[in-house]
Design brief:
The longest helix has 21 residues. The relative contact order is 0.09. The model has no long low-confidence stretch (mean pLDDT 87). This protein has a two-stranded antiparallel sheet. Strands 2-3 form a two-stranded antiparallel sheet. By secondary structure, the chain is mainly alpha-helical. It folds into 2 domains: 63 residues, no CATH class; 188 residues, Hypothetical protein af1432 (Orthogonal Bundle), CATH 1.10.3210.10. It binds fe (ii) ion. The site of fe (ii) ion has 6 residues, from helix 11.
Length: 319
């Protein structure tokens, strides 16, 4: 039989198991059934395996499609319910965003999951317009549990969305495109691979052939997945393709090509800023220090002018 791994934690969204759930016995490479299809899932059951440090359980590979549909439907219900409630804070609802991000990353981006992605992004957009305390939100992204990819993607989308609004060329379509692009730019990369951001990171990190190709082509690959997807703003794919400064969507560069759009540079610098904050040990980060770091990594004159705008809007929002 073929198996598909799922996070034990994702079962907490179900009252009843949508498929049979198995545990892998590492000592003899066998699988034992933990739950039959439609069995109730209790908090005691989840607690029992969490305390044994079990993070991953398995389903039969043939059940994968059904499980994914059920997962999407259960997460969508949370977003639907949420829209009817008055908005309190992003933090209280973050777990559903995390789960959505993990779910989309594990299944790859498909048309079936577009509604879920749109619901998560609509909810995030509401946070950005409602939340006046940006500093608190940034500290939260820094400290919250969840993959680095999740924290970087969501923080980047907040920063990028605020940044593009400063420019006279910004339209609602651009603002929407950059939100999607920020969320999906690094989709499918493990946290180790997300840390690779420059040519020098790439050449100095020991990687398998498969991981090398994955990280080198991720911008182009993720852009292709979004092209012509119903419901996804048409500009998002181009932004993803260019989010490491290359027009081709391949590799990394410090010399941003002339053909790369200013909107793509906004995405690149928003991700660079978020990356800098998330990796910085000190509590308070000086914006000037970030500018020095960013101008070393990227040499285009357009980078300097966009950094200036980013500084202005963050100073206003962080005050
Ligand atoms: Fe990337």
């Amino acid at each position: 039989m073929n198996w598909f791994p799922i996070e034990l934690d994702s079962l907490k969204y179900f009252n009843h198991s949508p498929v049979c759930i198995y545990l892998e016995l590492k000592e003899n490479n066998k699988y034992i059934k933990l739950l039959k299809r439609n069995s109730p899932i209790s908090s005691a059951f989840l607690h029992k395996y969490r305390t044994k440090n079990i993070e991953q359980v398995f389903i039969e590979a043939s059940d994968k499609g059904h499980y994914q549909k059920m997962m999407e439907s259960v997460l969508m219900k949370f977003f639907d319910k949420r829209q009817k409630k008055s908005y309190s804070s992003f933090q209280s609802y973050e777990d559903v965003h995390k789960k959505t991000h993990t779910h989309l990353a594990s299944i790859g981006f498909s048309e079936a999951s577009t509604n879920l992605a749109m619901a998560s992004i609509a909810d995030l957009k509401k946070t950005i317009s409602d939340d006046n305390n940006l500093r608190e939100l940034f500290v939260h992204f820094k400290n919250t549990e969840g993959t680095f990819n999740y924290r970087l993607s969501y923080m980047t989308s907040v920063v990028a969305h605020i940044l593009v609004r400063q420019f006279s060329w910004c339209t609602p379509e651009i603002s929407k495109s950059i939100l999607y692009a920020a969320i999906f730019a690094d989709m499918g990369l493990s946290d180790d691979l997300v840390l690779i951001r420059t040519e020098s990171d790439f050449s100095s990190t020991v990687l398998s052939k498969e991981d090398k190709e994955k990280v080198y082509y991720h911008a182009q690959d993720n852009a292709k997945k979004l092209i012509d997807k119903k419901g996804i703003p048409s500009g998002a794919a181009k932004l993803i393709n260019e989010h490491h400064g290359q027009k081709t969507g391949v590799g990394f560069t410090k010399f941003i090509a002339n053909g790369v759009s200013n909107i793509s540079i906004c995405l690149l610098l928003s991700q660079e800023f978020s990356f800098y904050i998330l990796n910085h040990e000190e509590k308070d980060v000086k914006y000037e220090d970030f500018v020095e770091h960013a101008t070393k990594n990227y040499t285009s004159p357009r980078v300097k002018s966009i950094l200036l705008e980013l500084g202005k809007c963050l100073v206003n929002k962080l005050a």
